[in-house]
Design a protein that fits this description.
alpha+beta; six-stranded antiparallel barrel; four-stranded antiparallel sheet; 27 strands; 25% helix; rod-shaped
Length: 499
């Protein structure tokens, strides 16, 4: 047993010496044979610096395709299970190659959702999975206002960017509303008698009847009028008898009494013709006829036969419709554009081929709390009596704004607190500019300040440009101060949405 154990031990030592000799010979032979074995050996030990003495591509490192910022010094599997991708030396060299003429210089790439994340090469954002966006050197030009963005022509076409030129031209519009025809209140008359009496005969006996000035209305029996007529006749005979008296006091007294009686008859609405007839006949009339003081239509009638009347009794109401009013409803936000003297055109819905012209004569000082409208009175001549009180009409009021700078309404981004347009500069630069706006007229906005005639602005695609501009404005803040607040609030004034 002892000899056998010694023989086995001797064989093991000899085998080990032979193995060492073979390995040494292989190593020495590989070195003398061009270094292939050394290269393989080094590659197997994993330094990650695979050289290219025989023309092979040099690998700088391996990276995760889904998270390119994660680098590894040897091939393998990424945490998400994907194979690591090699980064070759010539790729890094090409990325740092000189720019060709007209090519924009890229400073870095950033995550569009989290601009604080930057990378020195393109790839995928680690958080949202979106492609990194390049930051160009010319975007930071100090000659352009803050928030200005530069967008290539290809990207503009993809965004659907359209532009228009700022214009200055005369501006007007028609403010359309409804109006109701009413009687002219200045041409409405009320008929009373100035003495007490009794109505005897009525000539105008229904509402709506048209009367002319001087047309008989009714007859009245009045004891006061009868006695005054008799006094007048007595004064007239006295003046005839005593008017030639040698004493001035007597003759003047007779003439004064006659004049006083005649004046009392006139004040009681006895006409000169009736007084003349009294002079001619010398007989007092028991029934005195009263005549219409104006032309118009009877809108109210209370005179009835054998009715006792006093000066307080209103017997007729007469309205002259040769001129009518149209009360137009004006919304309170339109009141600044309506003024007295403005010309208005009216038309009837059932007679569209004809129109009537008038002017605003008064604007009522109150607003209806239910409809939020004020009344504007339009005075219209109505010689043919075609317009009747109670009718509804369509009113068109022409509003003149003068010569103004205007832009299309869709070009203005309205945050509620300020209004912004994007001004186009050379080289695809877009500048956000705050403007002061006036009224909106036929799809155009009046610009009070902030733009000049001839400037070019964006009319379509401005929402996408606004997003780019806000993102660019947020980049310095997020890089220096960490995540910013609401990116929609540029300079603390732009709201989260645009109208």
């Amino acid at each position: 047993m002892t000899e056998q154990a010694g023989k086995k031990k001797t064989l093991r030592v000899l085998s080990l010496i032979a193995l060492v000799a073979i390995v040494g010979a292989l190593l020495w032979g590989g070195k003398l044979g061009g270094g292939k074995l050394v290269t393989m050996f080094k590659g197997a030990t994993g330094a990650g610096a695979q050289t290219s003495e025989s023309g092979e591509r040099k690998v700088l490192y391996w990276y995760d395709a889904m998270n390119p910022q994660h680098h590894y010094d040897k091939p393998g599997k990424a945490p998400d299970g994907m194979d690591l991708v090699p980064k070759y030396a010539e790729e890094a060299a090409s990325s740092a190659a000189p720019l060709t003429p007209g090519e924009r210089k890229i400073l870095y790439w950033y995550d569009p959702m989290h601009p604080a994340y930057k990378s020195d090469k393109p790839g995928i954002a680690p958080d949202c999975g979106m492609e990194l966006v390049p930051k160009y050197a010319d975007e930071g030009s100090a000659s352009l206002p803050p928030g200005t963005v530069t967008i290539s022509s290809d990207k503009q076409q993809m965004m659907g960017v359209r532009t228009a030129t700022v214009e200055r031209k005369p501006l007007s519009r028609e403010l359309r509303t409804t109006a109701q025809i009413v009687a002219d209140e200045t041409k409405t008359s009320h008929v009373h008698v100035k003495v007490s009496g009794y109505v005897h005969q009525v000539y105008v006996d229904f509402v709506g009847q048209q009367v002319k000035e001087g047309q008989p209305l009714f007859t009245l029996y009045s004891p006061d009028l009868l006695s005054t007529q008799q006094e007048y006749l007595i004064a007239k005979r006295g003046e005839q008898t005593l008017g030639g008296a040698p004493y001035n006091e007597v003759s003047e007294g007779a003439r004064s009494l006659l004049k006083s009686a005649r004046e009392r008859l006139r004040l009681w609405d006895i006409t000169d013709e009736q007084i003349k007839k009294l002079d001619e006949t010398g007989k007092a009339e028991e029934m005195i006829t009263f005549y219409s003081p104006v032309s118009g239509f009877v809108t109210d009638r209370k005179a009835l036969p054998h009715m006792a009347v006093t000066p307080e009794t209103e017997l007729y109401t007469l309205a002259d419709y040769s001129t009518v009013w149209a009360n137009a409803d004006i919304y309170e936000y339109e009141l600044p554009y309506v003024r007295m003297g403005q010309r208005v055109k009216l038309s009837l819905s059932y007679d569209p081929g004809k129109s009537y012209s008038g002017r605003i004569s008064f604007i009522y000082p109150t607003v209806d709390p239910q409809t939020r409208t004020a009344k504007a009175r339009i005075e219209i001549a109505n010689p043919n009596l075609e317009l009747k009180p109670g009718m509804f009409a369509d009113a068109a009021i022409k509003v003149e704004y003068g010569t103004k700078i205007i832009v299309p309404q869709e070009a203005v981004l309205n945050s509620g607190r300020r209004q912004t347009v994007f001004v186009v500069h050379e080289g695809g630069a877009f500048e956000p500019r705050t403007i002061t706006v006036g009224p909106i007229v036929s799809g155009n906005v009046v610009v009070l300040s902030g733009l000049k005639e001839g400037e070019k602005i964006v009319t379509s695609g401005n929402f996408l440009i606004d997003s780019e501009s806000r993102l660019k404005s947020a980049l310095p803040q997020q890089a220096n101060n960490g995540p910013a607040g609401d990116p929609g609030e540029r300079d603390g004034s732009i709201g989260k949405s645009h109208d």
